[in-house]
Write a structure and sequence with these properties.
The complex is a heterodimer of chains A (about 325) and B (about 290). Chain A is an alpha+beta fold. Chain A folds into two domains: about 170 residues, no CATH class; about 130 residues, Cyclophilin (Beta Barrel). Chain A is built from four helices and 21 strands. Chain B is of the alpha+beta class. Chain B folds into two domains: about 80 residues, Gyrase A, domain 2 (2-Layer Sandwich), CATH 3.30.1360.40; about 200 residues, Cyclophilin-like (Cyclophilin, Beta Barrel), CATH 2.40.100.10. Chain B has eight helices and 14 strands. In chain B, the strands form three sheets. Chain B has a seven-stranded mixed barrel, surrounded by four helices. In chain B, β3 and β4 form a beta hairpin. The mean pLDDT of chain B is about 95. Classes of the chains: A alpha+beta (about 325), B alpha+beta (about 290). At the A-B interface, β16, β19, β20 and α4 of A face β1, β2, β3 and β4 of B. Chain A: It holds the Pfam family CT_A_B. Chain A: InterPro entries: CT_A_B, Cyclophilin-like_dom_sf, PxpC.
Chain lengths: ~325, ~290
């Protein structure tokens, strides 16, 4: 058991996600930064869909009531065992009675705590991920609270030696700009050419509305091509006949502030969507904080598939490194 | 229009069959996605038919997006509504119009509305040319709706009334969306009626509250044994205006775990609807309450 002494700002149980129920309006939920989540599981020898804790901005204080192997990956929210700083991206052994806590966030927004065996909560619709909006999955459908006790599961495939430390090249790099790659499309025909251009030219700053549901950005108003609204759409120029929203799609209600829809977002609705964040860069988005600036970069499908291939190659290299 | 095939990043294809809503195009999206399901194409993760469009989630390692688009274009050419059967359910949906809960939300949000001086029902009645809000309620409840899309949050049905275009009710969404909508609120936006499964944000005009749930994560009620969500695409829903007494009675049954929807299984074809929507609707209501 792991006892929650302090839950942190928002700590939830997440795995790879609740995949395959989009048609009934069930979003996937799951870890927002899939790379860090996956690497965490690899570092403790877990099945790659084992559930971890996703920790946002401020970490929890957890008391381990049994011996365990753990790894902390993702943004820089430095972990401490019994008050002593321990490195991230490394396999640690933690003993019964030890306390895991976290320092203030230095870089990024989210870290993942992987525990060998995974966090065991009931599997709902093939997943342990928490979807708080509808109270589905995770710890009683909600974020962790003080007093919760988490069971450790059996989703372990192999032993990983204590002290296994991931080489620098496979860790997150926060040195560059926040460039988020997107594929323009969906209903982008609704934007004026000038607005399409401006969307990619300028920087957008992340507002306080930035969470698992989505990120809202401040910048400038975007404009739509004038038209007589089609039957059933509603009267605003940003309205369309309600349609499906891809995960990572960006919509612009009334042209005012773009919103990127993320893991717990609505699956459809009546606002114009203009582009979609490519799957690899959703991880990057998850590590961006309120008030930070991002720039959207337009790529084509082949570039997106290439980025995806490179991502998978990197995960494969980490897999091989850990298996050595 | 010529359908648009669009990449939704590297994991989705979005197909807009038409910009405007119609029963024809909704049936077309249903027929294409049904055929795609039956074809068991490898690499497909989700098939999501919607109102006048549909969306596919796929694994690009198993099927290249361009190959998937070719497959979908082929279906667009070959799939026809001839002989397409929709296995459906006719369901009685009890609604308490002008209920105290949505009324409170309506009054708290006048600053986000087109017309701060009337209620959503009064406003919708006026812009649709009805003499009174009672006439609007009558028009909403006289003819059944088809659940033309499921989504937004789990189980929310977009419902499109099976009447000719000139009889369709159409309303704008709120000028600025609300941050609060009560659970089971019955709303209207564009040409669609909806029931909000859970409490949350929303931008549709609010007319009432459904007595029975459409989402139940504990799956206690009989109609939720197989799924947390009740409505399915293609369901034929009749919104029935009820009194506060009946509302309370249904709420008690829901709490006791004894509530069951009045459901009649029914298979129909798009032609039946398109040839004579009024006759079809009368037939549906006849079967439901037979």
């Amino acid at each position: 058991m792991i006892k929650v002494k302090n839950p942190g700002l928002q700590t939830t149980v997440q795995d790879y996600g609740r995949i395959g129920y989009y048609d009934v309006g069930m979003p996937p939920s799951g870890a927002m930064d899939k790379y860090s989540y996956t690497v965490g599981n690899l570092l403790v020898g877990n099945d790659e869909n084992a559930a971890s804790l996703e920790i946002t901005y401020m970490g929890p204080t957890l008391e381990f009531q049994q011996d365990a192997f753990i790894a902390v990956t993702g943004g820089e929210i430095p972990p401490k065992i019994n008050g002593e700083a321990v490195p991230m991206w490394e396999t640690h052994s933690i003993k019964a009675g030890d306390e895991l806590s976290f320092d203030f966030v230095k870089k990024g927004a989210r870290v993942y705590l992987a525990v060998a065996g995974g966090v065991d909560v009931p599997v709902i619709m093939d997943s342990r991920s928490t979807y708080t909006l509808c109270g589905v999955g995770g710890m009683e459908g909600r974020a962790l609270q003080a007093g919760d006790e988490l069971k450790i599961g059996n989703d372990k495939k192999q032993e990983v030696k204590e002290g296994t430390s991931l080489p620098e090249e496979y860790r997150l790099d926060f040195s560059g700009d926040n460039e988020i790659r997107v594929i323009l499309g969906l209903c982008s025909y609704r934007l004026t050419e000038e607005s399409k251009k401006r969307f990619f030219e300028r920087e957008w700053s992340v507002t306080t509305e930035a969470n698992r549901v989505g990120y809202r950005f401040k910048g400038e108003r975007l404009h739509f091509v004038e038209r007589e609204q089609p039957f059933g759409a509603g009267s605003n120029a940003s309205n369309v006949v309600d349609l499906g929203y891809p995960i990572g799609s960006i919509q612009v209600p009334d042209g005012v502030e773009p919103i990127a829809l993320l893991n717990d977002a609505v699956t459809g609705g009546g606002y114009v969507t203009i582009c979609t964040i490519i799957s690899t860069d959703l991880d990057k988005m998850a590590q961006v904080k309120t008030n930070e600036k991002v720039r959207f970069v337009s790529v084509d499908i082949e570039e997106a598939l290439q980025a995806r291939k490179e991502y998978r190659d990197t995960v494969e290299k980490v897999r091989q490194f850990v298996a050595q | 229009m010529v359908p648009r095939y669009e990449y939704g990043g590297d994991e989705f294809i979005f197909v807009e069959l038409a910009e405007e809503m119609s029963l024809e195009v909704n049936f077309q999206a249903m027929a294409i996605t049904k055929q795609l399901k039956e074809d068991n194409v490898p690499g497909i993760v989700d098939i999501c038919p919607s109102n006048a469009s549909y969306m596919i989630r796929f694994k690009p390692e198993e099927i290249h997006p361009d190959d998937l688009i070719s497959k979908l274009k082929e279906l667009e050419k070959t799939v026809s509504l001839e002989g397409f059967e929709i296995k459906s359910r006719i369901v009685d949906m009890p609604i308490l119009f002008e209920d105290p809960w949505t009324h409170e939300t309506v009054m708290n949000n006048r600053d986000r509305h087109q017309d701060p001086n009337s209620t959503d029902l009064e406003y919708a009645a006026r812009i649709n040319g009805f003499d009174s809000k009672e006439d609007l309620i009558q028009a909403i409840t006289d003819y059944p709706y088809i659940a033309s899309m499921i989504g937004f949050v789990p189980g929310l049905p977009w419902c499109y009334q099976m009447v000719p275009r000139e009889q369709q009710i159409e309303v704008p969404k709120y000028v600025r969306p609300r941050t609060f909508t009560s659970e089971r609120a019955f709303g209207f936006g564009g040409a669609f009626a909806v029931i909000y499964p859970v409490q949350g944000a929303g931008g549709y005009q609010l007319f009432g509250t459904a007595a029975a749930p459409i989402f139940e994560n504990e799956q206690r009620l009989h109609d939720f044994k197989d799924s947390m969500t009740f409505p399915r695409q293609g369901d034929l829903l009749r919104f029935r205006s009820i009194t506060m007494d009946e509302y309370k009675k249904i709420r008690k049954e829901v709490e006791d775990g004894t509530f069951r929807y009045l459901i009649k299984e029914f298979t129909f074809t798009p032609q039946q609807v398109l040839e004579n929507p009024k006759a079809f609707s009368d037939d549906v209501l006849g079967r439901l309450y037979a």
